[in-house]
Amino acid sequence: MEKDENSSLHVPMLPNQHVSHDHDLDSQRSQQLSSLRQDIIEEVKKQVWLGGPLVSVTLLQYSLQMISIMFVGHLGKLPLSGASLGCSFASVSGYSVLLGMGSALETLCGKAYGARQYHMLGIHTQRAMLVLLGSSIPLSFIWFYSSNLLIAMGQDHEISNQAGIFNRWMIPGLFAYGILQCLNRFLQSQNNVFPLVISSGVTTLVHVVLCSFFVFEHNLGSKGAAMAISISYWINVFMLVVYINLTTACAATWNGISKEALNDIISYIKLAIASAVMICFEYWSFEMVVLLSGLLPNPQLETSVLSISLNTCWLVYTISVGLGCVISSRVSNELGAGNTQGALLALRVMIVIAILVGTTIGLVTILVRNVWGKLYSNEDEVIHYVAKMMPLLALSDFLDGFQCVLSGAARGCGWQNLCAFINFGAYYVVGIPSAILFAFVFHIGGMGLWMGIICALAVQGIALVTINLCTDWNNEAKKAMHIYQNSNILT
């Protein structure tokens, strides 16, 4: 009997038992796939819900300078040239710096929100405001002496003087712009983006009225257009401040002015400088390409076409910036909550979205290549040259959108120092030298300059992909959580 009992333990599984076991495995796999599919759908909804408003905000806030230049353009060639040069100089020497410094909040506020340390969002934002307002003081002196600096750089005296006047009247708006960047990141990190859309939309409408009022009705010319920019930025700031202080949506994240914002400002400055360098290295290289185009044969044609290319690039870039802000918030939120898989899923979903958007934009760019130049010029030579440039723009727009998403994820992780080195290498070790080589050695002209930018974008993208693939995301989540488990850090 004992032998029979032992032997019964080794009776082979019956066929229907095999079927039952396989059925359980299939059911488990089906449930996992269904759960993954549901997670992907939810993540897409979150990103689309954030992406649309943030792209709109970026475009609306960028449009203030463009609208002012359009009004000045009706005053004549000299005022238009001066305002255009002034805005370009202001972007390089002021706006891009503050934009970069403010983006450090994407890391800090995003992780704090994910870690449910809601009060820290207000502290980080106040600390950032102090740093950006302080940084605006030396930047305002640079703007005040814009004409002298531009003349020293070899620019035309009359145009430089006009640019200097324009920038002096924009100085009050520089301080508002810095505060605005902080408030944008404060609300963005909480996924509370629709107030940004409303305030930016109202500001844009008011800005059109202000430009008309100052430029034409009071005959203030380019001064009035610059003054309108300053006032409009302050109006936007005022609306957001009122909203943040009155709404219950920010009750947990904004507890009024706090002395804690004065603690450990140096830590924020270090991250802000790295963020600014990371962004400025990229922005400045595009402006440098336009300056280099003035050294080519037939500089008027080359500069005109490169300027059109740059304006087109910046217009498309507003979409990429919006997507970059979305993934920065999503990654920092998930890492702050210790959710490694959530951060990875968010990044993968955004990469797919970026590829789809980039492909669509690229195809549209190629399809409109023969008519796009007509929006800027009536000269056949310019229109034909722009048409030849558009395929290169399509490729650069695709690569730029891809790297912008990866850079946004990097900001969400807090990799600004590393990205600053990557951007320096990509744009100034590879990009600009390649542009000079193609344009001046191989004599490809303006198209060669833009090919250098494409080389830089490719190197930047490859480096960022490599870093993401080599990253221990579990460790990143642990670091993010560790910050807010130790309340003395950055508080």
UniProtKB/TrEMBL annotation:
Subcellular location field: Membrane
GO cellular component: membrane
Keywords: Membrane, Transmembrane, Transmembrane helix
Source species, domain of life: Eukaryota
Chief localisation class: membrane
Record-level Gene Ontology MF annotations: antiporter activity; xenobiotic transmembrane transporter activity
Membrane topology listed for this record: Multi-pass membrane protein
GO biological process: xenobiotic detoxification by transmembrane export across the plasma membrane
InterPro entries, A to Z: MATE_euk, MATE_fam
Pfam families: MatE
Transmembrane segments annotated in the record for this chain: 48-71, 83-108, 128-146, 166-186, 193-216, 231-254, 266-286, 306-328, 349-369, 421-442, 448-471
Family: Belongs to the multi antimicrobial extrusion (MATE) (TC 2.A.66.1) family.
Protein name in the entry: Protein DETOXIFICATION
Species per Swiss-Prot/TrEMBL record: Lupinus albus (White lupine)
